[in-house]
């Protein structure tokens, strides 16, 4: 089982540490002694958010999906409505979640992105 935990400020990369809008999640594989298995960093900006970095250390799409969904849920709980996916990794998972290209950027409305795949008619 993988547990997704919000990032402590000191766990953010150096380029995020001084940014008050930066947040993130760390994935821990509980079946492997709590080993760190992925990370996701993002920014909140009013009613929108940018997902800047997502990485599964084992290249596992399920971990990537969990990190993206954790970030989206974090934003939704803070009245964020739109999400932009700017990360280089995990774009295939972002596409499956329902992000669509708009002006060259993968973007989506968080309620639809968090809906199950049965609700997306894909």
In short:
The protein is α+β, with helices and mostly antiparallel strands and 122 residues long. The chain has four helices and seven strands. Helices cover 26% and strands 37% of the residues.
Per DSSP, the total helix count is 4
SSE topology string: EHEEEHEHEEH
Uncertain residue segments? none
Shape: globular
For the largest beta-sheet, the strand count, sense and barrel status come to: 7 strands, mixed
Percent helix range: 25-40%
Question: On the 0-100 scale, what is the average pLDDT?
Answer: 92
Query: Span between N and C termini?
Result: 27 Å
In total, the number of strands is 7
Q: Rg to the nearest angstrom?
A: 14 Å
Describe the overall structure.
With 122 residues, the protein is an alpha+beta fold. It contains four helices and seven strands. It has a seven-stranded mixed β-sheet. β2 (22-29) and β3 form a beta hairpin.
Question: How is this fold's topology laid out?
Answer:
Blueprint: E1 2-6, H1 14-17, E2 22-29, E3 35-45, E4 48-56, H2 61-76, E5 82-85, H3 91-97, E6 100-102, E7 105-109, H4 110-114
Parallel strand pairs: 4-5
Antiparallel strand pairs: 1-2, 2-3, 3-4, 5-7, 6-7
């Amino acid at each position: 089982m993988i547990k997704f935990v919000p990032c402590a400020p000191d766990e953010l990369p150096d380029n995020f540490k001084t940014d008050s809008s930066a947040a993130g999640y760390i994935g821990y594989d509980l079946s492997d002694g709590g080993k760190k298995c992925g990370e996701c960093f993002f920014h909140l900006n009013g009613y929108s958010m940018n997902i800047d970095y997502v990485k599964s250390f084992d290249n596992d799409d399920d971990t990537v999906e969990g990190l993206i969904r954790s970030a989206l849920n974090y934003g939704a709980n803070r009245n964020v409505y739109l999400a932009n996916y700017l990360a280089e990794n995990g774009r295939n998972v972002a596409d499956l979640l329902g992000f669509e290209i708009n002006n060259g950027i993968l973007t989506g409305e968080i309620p639809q992105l968090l809906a199950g795949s049965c609700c997306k008619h894909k």
